[in-house]
Amino acid sequence: METSKTYIIGNWKMNGDKALAERLAMAAMALPPKSHVQVVLCPPAIFMGELANLVDVTRIGLGGQDCHMQAEGAFTGDVSASMLYESGACYVLVGHSERRCGHGETNQIVAQKALQAANAELIPVICIGETAEQRKSGLANVVIEQQLAESIPEELAAGKFLLAYEPVWAIGSGQSATTDDIEAMHRHIITVVGKQKGAAANDVAVLYGGSVKAENAGEILTINGVSGVLVGGASLDPDAFSDIVAAAT
Ligand code: PGA
Question: What is the Rg, in whole angstroms, of the alpha carbon atoms belonging to the chain?
Answer without folding.
Answer: 17
